[in-house]
Amino acid sequence: MYTWWATAAFGLEGQVRRELQALGLAGQAETGGVRFSGSAQDGLLANLWLRTADRVLLLLAEQQVTTFDALFELVKGIPWEEHLERDAAFPIAAQCARSQLMSPRDCQTISKKAIVERLKKTYRADWFPETGAQYQVRVILHNDVAKICLDASGEALNRRGYRTWTGEAPLRETLAAALVDLSPWAPGLPLYDPCCGTGTLLVEAAFRMAGRAPGLKRTFAMERWRLLDTQEALELRVQAQSRFNVAAIKDIAGSDVDQEALTLCKRHLQQAGLGNRIAVSQAGVRALSGLKEGTVILTNPPYGERMGERKQAEQVYRDLFALHLATPKSRLCVITAHPGFERVVGRKAARRRRLYNGRLECDFLTY
Fold first, then answer.
1. Which regions of the chain are under pLDDT 50?
2. pTM of the model
3. Which end of the chain is more exposed for a tag (fewer CB within 10 A), N or C?
C-alpha cells in the first residue's frame, strides 16, 4: 500500500474526498488536497476518475525541515532505487510557502543532489542519462513541513484532452466539474448554460451523465512506472470505457452571444466524443424567453472586471435572473467575481459558496 495525495484548489478538498469515497477509497481532507492509502492500481483509478482534483501524487516522505541540510537528508533517506530505473528521468519541481526555506531553485538543487547521491550507491555510477520513463519529483514546503512526492498524473488532471482551444476567459475543467457537482443538478434534470462560451460546463455535465471517466482519453505519467502492473492498468481502462454511455446524455444544452466561442464549443463537443448529443445556439440571454420546467441554469457569465464592461455584465445578470423567473421551478447557479451580483438582481441567493477561478476569488450563488 502507498500513501497518495490528491491535490485540490482551495475550497474543493471536501469535494475530492467525496469523489474518492465513491471510488471506495477513504481519504482525509487537508488544506490543499486529500490524503489516501491504496495500491498502485488505486492511484491510477484516482487519476482516471477524479473530476475535481488537480493532480495525484505519490507521497514518499513528509517531515518538518528548516535547513537545507535537513532537506538533503530527508530526500536522501527515501529508497529511490525502489522507484527509479537507472535511466529514469527525475526532474525536480519545488514550491515554497510560509517556510524558512523559500527558494524553490535551491530546494530543487539540494533535492537533485540528494537523489543522485542515493542512486550512486545502488547503481554504482556517477552519471545518469535520464533517457527513460519520467518521474517528476515534487518538493512541496508549507509551514516548514516538506512533502516529497512523485507526480503520478503528469499533465494536470484538468487536461482531459477535449479542449484544445480556449476562449477569452476559460473555465478550468476541474472547476467546471465542481460547479456541476455543487449545483442542484443531477442526471435526469434539464441543464442549460446561457453563457456557455467554449462549452466546458456542458461537457463536464455530460461526462457525469454518461458515466465517462474524465481521464479516459489521456495517459498518465505513472503508466510508465514499474510499480504499476500493465495488465491491471489495462483492465481499469477497459472497465472505464465500458461505463461510458453517450446515449444517456439528454436535456443538456446551451447558448452564447459570441459566434467565435460557439465555434470552439462545437469543436470541443466533437473532441469529447459527444457528437450531436448537446445542442448549442447563438443567442443573447435576453432573447431566451423561457426554458423547460425544472431546468437548472448553470453558468459562468462575464465578470465585468474592466470598467467599460461592468454595465454590460450587470445587464447580463439581470437578464439571467429574468430567465430564471420566466422558467417554472428552475434553479439559477452562477459563479461570479462581481461583488454586487445580488444587489444588481435585487435578490439574495439561497446558497453562497466561496471558490477560486484561478487566483480570482469568486462566489458560487444558487437561487
1. none
2. 0.94
3. N
